[in-house]
Amino acid sequence: MELYHASKEIVKYPEIRKAKYTKDFSWGFYCTNNMQQAVRWANRGMGEPIINYYDYQPNENLKILKFSEISDDWLDFIAECRSGKTHLYDVVEGPMANDTVWNYVNDFLTGRITRKQFWVLAEFKYPTHQISFHTLSALDCLTFLKSEVIYDR
């Protein structure tokens, strides 16, 4: 399966970096199978928008968590990760909330809306895809193919 990583640099050797803020699935190396999403992310901020391409060959021996759609389990997992909790999965795959849904997630995490209100607001929003790699064994499933500069059209 081909995956894309948005960046401002060529990333031949993916890394897991601990940053000030955690992401949806905690610290990890994030990719997507959605090229349009990758292009949007690469074009944020200053610098050249670079899309890195990888071949992903899943390893059945790894601990993989996959969310097929947004759900209470997905929301709870994101809430825990965003609050700084870590997990023991090598790979986590699932929906990535678009900016609108992410605002609802933030409102839920901060207590401004209830879970029920979140689902009412998010009902007709369609999240995109993300897959995150959290261990060196998981990163070994990725083979760098190429990179290219792609400006948002």
Structure description:
Pfam families: DUF3990. This is DUF3990 domain-containing protein. InterPro entries: DUF3990. It comes from Blautia obeum. This protein has 153 residues and is an alpha+beta fold. The protein has one domain. It is built from 5 helices and 7 strands. The strands form 2 sheets. A 4-stranded mixed sheet has the order 2-6-5-4. Strand 4, helix 2 and strand 5 form a beta-alpha-beta unit. Helix 3 packs antiparallel against helix 4. The longest helix is centred in the middle third of the chain and has 11 residues. The radius of gyration is 16 Å and the shape is globular. 28% of the residues are buried.
Helix content: 25-40%
| Series of H and E elements | EEHEEHEHHEHE
> What is the average of the pLDDT values?
92
Q: Tell me the count of domains.
A: 1
Counting DSSP H or I runs of 4 or more residues, the number of helices is 5
**Arrangement of strands in the largest sheet:** 2-6-5-4
Could you list the spans in which at least 5 consecutive residues all have pLDDT below 50?
A: none
> What distance separates the N and C termini?
25 Å
Q: Would you tell me the structural class of the helices and strands?
A: alpha+beta
Number of strands: 7
**In percent, how much strand structure appears in the residues?**
25-35%
What is the gyration radius calculated from CA atoms? 16 Å
Using the alpha-carbon principal axes, give the shape.
globular
Sketch the major β-sheet: 4 strands, mixed
Question: How would you summarize what this structure contains?
Answer:
By secondary structure, the protein is α+β, with helices and mostly antiparallel strands. The chain is 27% helix and 25% strand.
